[in-house]
Structure formats: C-alpha cells, structure tokens
Write a structure and sequence with these properties.
The complex is a heterodimer of chains A (174) and B (333).
Chain A lengths: L1 H12 L22 E8 L4 H7 L9 E9 L3 E9 L5 H10 L4 E6 L2 E7 L5 E3 L19 E6 L4 E4 L5 E3 L7
Antiparallel strand pairs in A: 1-3, 1-4, 2-3, 4-5, 6-7, 7-8, 8-9
Chain B lengths: L6 H8 L5 H11 L12 H16 L10 E6 L5 H12 L3 E5 L13 H9 L4 E6 L4 H8 L4 E6 L5 H15 L6 E5 L6 H9 L6 E5 L8 H10 L2 E5 L12 E4 L10 H7 L18 E3 L20 H20 L4
Parallel strand pairs in B: 1-2, 1-3, 3-4, 5-6, 5-8, 6-7, 8-9
The chains are: A alpha+beta (174), B alpha/beta (333).
Chain lengths: 174, 333
C-alpha cells in the first residue's frame, strides 16, 4: 500500500527513463529518475541546502539532483534531493532529523520505492550533537556525546553526562 | 559463557524471603557499584546506607579495609570533602594514594581523564574523585571496572554531601518522612540543595525555598517537584515568623560573584543572615544545617544554640563516607 502511494508521488518527480507515461504532463520531466539510490522528499524549502551540506553532497561523485520550491499539497512548497547509488544508515537519518524532522527518505531500487523512512528523533542521540554546556565533560574529553530526547514535540534533549536540558535547534551537530 | 542476571530479576525472585539489605549486598558485587548520584536511589538503598553510617558512628575505627587501596583524585581543590574521605579510608584500615592538585599530575601534560582513570585503576580498589567538569564522574565510571565515588563534579552532583545531609536529618529527626525543609540563600547555584531536593523525593517532604529573586530555585527543579508531586512554597522573606514551622533549616551562602547586578547584591546580602534572635519561635526539633564553609550567613551567636547542627553535620560526613566506601566495595561493617 505504502509502495503504491509513493509510486503515485514518484510519478511527478521520477518517471522511468523509457519515456513519458500516459497522462503525465511536462512537469514529470522536471527531475530525472534514478535507478537506485535515495530520494529525500518533503524538505522545507529553507533546509534543502543545509541537508545537502550535512550529507556532503558536494563530494558525491554519483548523480545528485537538488530541487526546490516544488508545489506540495501538504507543505505549499517543498524541496527534494535525489542521490543515485547512495543509501543512508539509521544514524545518518537521525542526524538529519536533528535539523529537520519529518522529512522522508525513499529508498529506490530498480526505479521503485522499496522502503520509506521518516526522519524522526530517536529516543537517544549518540555522537550526533555537541553539548551546549562548556563545562560538560563531553566538550573537554575525546569522547562520544550521548543525549536523551526528553520531548520529541518540542525538540528538548538532555545530556547524559552534565544533565543539562537543551533545545535541539540551539546546539551544534558533531 | 556468561550468566547475566539483573538486579531487578534478583529482587523479583528473592524479595519475599531474603532481606533487602542482603540483596543490595549480592547485587552490588555483581555490577559496577560506582556512586555518581544518589538522586534516584529508593528508600531501601538509602536506608541501607543510613544504617551502615549509624553502625560506623557507633564504632568508626575498624580494620575491615585492611589491604585495600583507596585513591583520592582531586582534580579540583577541596578541604573538607578530601579530608573526610581520607579520614574515612584511614579509620577503616585502607591505604590512601592520590593527589590534591592536578598540576602535579600528567593532566597538566594533556593526559585525558580516561587515561588517568585507567592508569589509577591498576593500583586502587576504589577511586574517589572530584573534578571541575560536569559529568566527569559518570564518564570515569564508564571507562573503568573500579568503582568510582563522585566527590563533586563541577556544579553538577555531590552525592557524598547529600548522603551526610540525609544522615544528619535522619539522626536529628528520627525519620526522613513528612518533614518541613526550609532552604535558604543561594538556591540557584547550590548543588547541595538540588541534590538534597531530589534525594528526599520518596519521603513526602514540604520544601520552602527562601531566596532573593536572582538566586531562586531554578525552573527545572520546580518542574521536578511538580512532576514528582513534591510540595513546595517560594518566599523571599526570611524572618523569625517565616521559619517558625521548619524541621530543618538548610542555610547556604549568598555569594557576591553570583550577582550580575551588584546593587541587587548589596540590597539582599544581609537579608539572608541567620541570627540567634530569629530562633525564638522555631520548633524544638528544628536543626540548622549548612554544607560549610560558612562566611557570614550564620551569625557566630547561633553556634551556641541547641538548634545549630552544622559542625556535627560535618562530623557525620565521616560516617556517611565510611558507609559509601564500604558500599561500593561490597563490604559490611
């Protein structure tokens, strides 16, 4: 069912290279299809380039398509990034969720969406963000940071070591 | 092949026919017994430590730690806490190694805390450490198999002070249940009041927070009280009448350097000084505690009052720390 839904979404943005499908308008060719890789969808327009930077797409040698300000029924306007031959681990997706929760990672294999993951804050973040407390041990020792997500709605995390609660949008990524 | 048994599973199986103290003894031997915080300890564990402290007060000098080495690593200066821990170890027959100034150690050469702890772990059976960085004790407990006792990590936690506070309250009031605890002075930065507040959670206390606006109890601790159903009252007046219902009057120092507005400091600095003439209406059982050092927040004339307890409180630190050292080593008095 999920696959079907994504297929219908994908029709707009990733048509098969064999030609324009029946009933598809010129907009279908705005973004090229990928055979294998990841489509990151539903990105807020002001976060597209932040995410591209976090994923270090400037160093990627495979085909990368970045689109912004596409019309979206849910969001008004949205951004989309397609990366050929690249798949993201859960920890990479958690890292993205810190700056931009609720975006979708669609895994494409042989032009089909085989899995869809929504980036959401996990219960715990290991070595994803720095503690904002300068006298926290994690800022003074070569060690991994650990945060517990205490409020996913408000984006509040608590440092395992110094115990300080912090707004996730105010802290820096590792 | 390892057999992994959780403390909870032992409690579940054994709770009905083995005394809880025995269970603590068994389970303490099985896992890392470090004491980083006692804020989340339940009544049974606290009572176990209180009973042990009482036993050490009855007979402080023993040889039960003979052959053991206690390392006291004070990366930050300390007088009372260090002397108290070292006295506790010495009175129980242990040998003490350590340092009081990180400048004389490899820390000054850039050695990491992890490396220092792992090195000392080769020599000592227990490590007592104080560090200026918050979370240092927890991190240390994660990198070694040797139990760590947190003797203060920055402004974060100071569980041995909390333990001696609990013991002092228990000893003077005969219980920890249903007490009126008045905290006075610097409630914003004082880690001792924060730790005490959290560790009293199981005992249905009523707190009165008496502080100037700049040093009032931080919001996160008030939220903690609300979440845990702990009753509290906030007030700025510190008079004979406002402290009349206290069972415990916990004084702290209002420090000049904590104020961004020095005019505000000048205005409030004398408002939170306890004088002997303020004790006329207080309850007979009321005791005055203070983590020390005192500067001027308790007038000298209070020292002669039967309510003054801060010097005995410091003495209780010895028994509480004897209990903590033995607890992490799994040794009974």
């Amino acid at each position: 069912m999920e696959k079907d839904i994504m297929k219908s979404e994908e029709k707009v943005t990733t048509p098969r290279p064999t030609g324009r499908g029946k009933g598809e308008g010129p907009q279908a060719l705005l973004v090229a299809a990928i055979e294998n890789g990841t489509v990151i969808d539903h990105i807020p327009t002001n976060k597209v380039f932040t995410i591209a930077s976090l994923l270090e797409l400037d160093k990627c040698s495979d085909q990368v398509t970045i689109g912004n300000n596409f019309e979206s029924g849910k969001m008004g306007k949205k951004g989309i990034i397609k990366i050929a031959n690249r798949f993201f681990s859960d920890s990479e997706i958690s890292r993205i969720a810190v700056v931009c929760p609720n975006i979708r990672f669609c895994l494409i294999k042989d032009y089909d969406v085989v899995e869809k993951k929504i980036a959401s804050l996990p219960d715990m973040l290991t070595n994803v963000v720095h503690c904002a407390n300068p006298v926290c041990i994690t800022n003074n020792e070569p060690m991994k940071t650990v945060f517990y997500v205490t409020d996913k709605e408000k984006g509040i995390v608590k440092c395992r070591y110094c115990g300080k609660e912090q707004q996730i949008e105010h802290i820096k990524l590792v | 092949m390892y057999l992994i048994i959780s403390r909870r599973s032992i409690l579940r199986k054994a709770n009905y026919f083995v005394p809880l103290q025995e269970i603590w003894k068994i389970t303490d031997r099985m896992e890392n017994r470090s004491i980083v915080s006692i804020a989340d300890y339940g009544k049974e564990k606290i009572q176990y430590l209180l009973d042990m402290a009482a036993e050490f007060e009855r007979q402080p000098n023993r040889t039960i730690l003979q052959g053991k080495v206690v390392a006291t690593l004070f990366f930050e200066p300390s007088t009372r806490t260090r002397l108290s821990f070292e006295t506790a170890a010495n009175r129980l027959g242990a040998r003490v190694i350590g340092f009081t100034d990180p400048k004389v150690t490899s820390s000054s050469k850039g050695e990491t805390l992890k490396d220092t702890i792992k090195m000392v772990s080769n020599y000592a059976d227990v490590i007592v450490m104080r560090h200026r960085l918050e979370g240092a004790a927890l991190y240390a407990s994660e990198v070694t198999h040797v139990p760590i006792i947190n003797a203060g990590d920055g402004s974060n936690l100071h569980p041995s002070q909390t333990m001696l506070d609990l013991y002092s309250i228990y000893k003077t009031q005969g219980t920890l249940e249903n007490l009126n605890i008045y905290m006075v002075g610097d409630l914003k930065y004082g880690r001792t009041v924060h730790s005490l507040l959290m560790s009293m959670r199981p005992y249905n206390p009523t707190f009165h927070f008496i502080a100037p606006k700049e040093l009032e109890m931080p919001e996160e601790y008030k939220m903690y009280c609300k979440k845990e159903g702990i009753k509290y009252v906030e007030q700025t007046d510190f008079t004979e009448d406002t402290i009349a219902d206290a069972d415990i009057l916990y004084m702290t120092r209002v420090q000049r350097e904590r104020f961004t507005d020095l005019m505000e400091y000048e205005r409030v600095k004398d408002a939170y000084i306890l004088r002997a003439d303020m004790l006329g209406k207080c309850r007979e059982n009321m005791k005055i505690l203070h983590p020390l050092p005192r500067v001027n927040e308790i007038e000298q004339d209070v020292d002669d009052s039967p309510h003054a307890y801060y010097f005995q409180q410091a003495q209780n630190g010895l028994y509480a720390r004897e209990a903590l050292i033995c607890s992490v080593l799994g040794i009974e008095p």
